[in-house]
Amino acid sequence: MSIFRQTCFLIWITLITFVVNGSVMGQDNSQGRYRPEGRQIGIEAGQLFNERVFEVRIYEPDVDSSSFSGAKIFYPLTLSFDAPTGAVVFVPGFRASASSYEWWGPTLASLGYVVTILETNNPTDGLSARAEALVSAVDFVKSENARTDGPLAGKIDPSRVAIMGHSMGGGASLVAAQTLGSAIQAVIPLSLYCCEIGESFDGNGSRLPTPALVIASATDPIAPPKDHAKLIYDTLAGPKIYMEFSEGDHNIVTNGGTDLRTIGLFALAFLKVHLDGRSDLSSFVASPSLEFSNKFSRYEVGN
Asked: pLDDT value at position 205?
C-alpha cells in the first residue's frame, strides 16, 4: 500500500472512531458529554407532556462580567424555522460549582430551554453576590441571543426567562427575582438557604409577584424548611407552589440526588406552564397524582 493510501486509510479509521465514540462536534452523546440521567428525564417528560424532545448541545462562552466568572450553556438543537425558545439561568449554592448541577442541563434543554449554569466569582460568595450574578447573567444570556456569530443567535425569546438556584443560590434567586421584576416569568429556589451566613430571615416576599416553585426536604439538616424554605414561601405574594419531600438531604437537587426524576418532571411542568403557556399542565403541578404525592411531607399551592 502506498504512503498516500496508508495516510488516507488512517484518517478514515480515525474519523470512524470519532463518530462511533460520539466525539464529532455536534453529536448528541447523552452518555458522554453530559449526564445521562438528565437526558433520560427530559425524554420521559417529553412523552408524558406530549412535547417535542430536542437534541442537546453544550458550549462555554467567553464571559466578561464582574458578577460571575464563567458559565456552561446547554441548548436545544433547533431548526432555522423554529420559534425562539425560553431560557433558564441557574446559580450554584455555597461552595458549589456548576459541575454539581450538570444533570439540570440536559433535563431542561431536552424540552426546549437554553440552560445557563453559572460559575460564581468565588465558591464562598454570599447571597447578595449570587443574586447579583443572576441579574447580570440574565442580561448576558440575552446578549448571547443578540450576538450574530454565536450558537444562540436569535434562538432565545427574551420574554420567556426563568431563574433558579440551590441553597444560598436559592435564596439569591428570590432576591434577584425582586430586582428583575417583569424581566423574568418564573423562579425556582431549590433547598433554599434564606440569608447570608449567620443571619436569620427578617424580610418578606410580598413584593414578589413572580410565579415560584419552592422545592425543599423535610429532613434537610443545613436549611430546615421551618427556618428557610417554608418560612419564606409563606410570605410570597405571587402564584406559588411548595413541594417538600419527606426524605432527602440538602443536596437532593444536585447530581446523584435521591429523586431527580420527580424534581425534574415537576420543574419542567412548572416551566411549561409559566414560560410556554401550557395551562393544561397546571393540574400536574397543582394536584400531584398518587405516584408522586406519597413522596411529599407537605405540598401546598397558593394564589
From this structure: 66
